[in-house]
Amino acid sequence: MKTKEPRISVRVTAALKERIEKVTQRTGVDETTLVRACLEALCDHVERNGKVTFPLALDAPGNSPAPTPPPQKIQPVRAKFRAPKNKSSSVFP
């Protein structure tokens, strides 16, 4: 006798279904893979931290903006200019 895979059925709104379709188009994965990855990430988070708060927020490496580097102090540069010693050696003709 053939054993069935465990399944979870979830009803979603039309708006959420459209959002999922957009994500699958952007990432190139199918819905099943996307939902499975999200559930695995949620379970891993709960196992590590022992809790979860709602609404969920995902921070994946590479998705968050790069941290801005601390401002660097810029040292003023003083130009060294020496005027010609005699008037006949002028820079301008």
Structure explained in plain terms:
With 93 residues, the chain is mostly helical. 35% of the residues lie in helices and 0% in strands. The protein has helices at 14-27, 31-49.
What key phrases describe this protein's structure?
single chain; 93 residues; 2 helices; elongated
Strand fraction band?
under 5%
| SSE run | HH
Q: What integer value in Å does the Rg equal?
A: 31 Å
Taking the sheet with the most strands, its summary is: none
How widely separated are the two ends?
Answer: 103 Å
Averaged pLDDT: 78
- The number of helices is 2
3D shape: elongated
Structural class: mainly alpha
Binned, the helix content reads 25-40%
Extended strand count? 0
Model regions low in confidence, pLDDT < 50 over at least 5 residues: none
Summarize the helices and strands and which ones pair or pack.
Elements: H1 14-27, H2 31-49
Short description:
The chain is mainly α and 93 residues long.
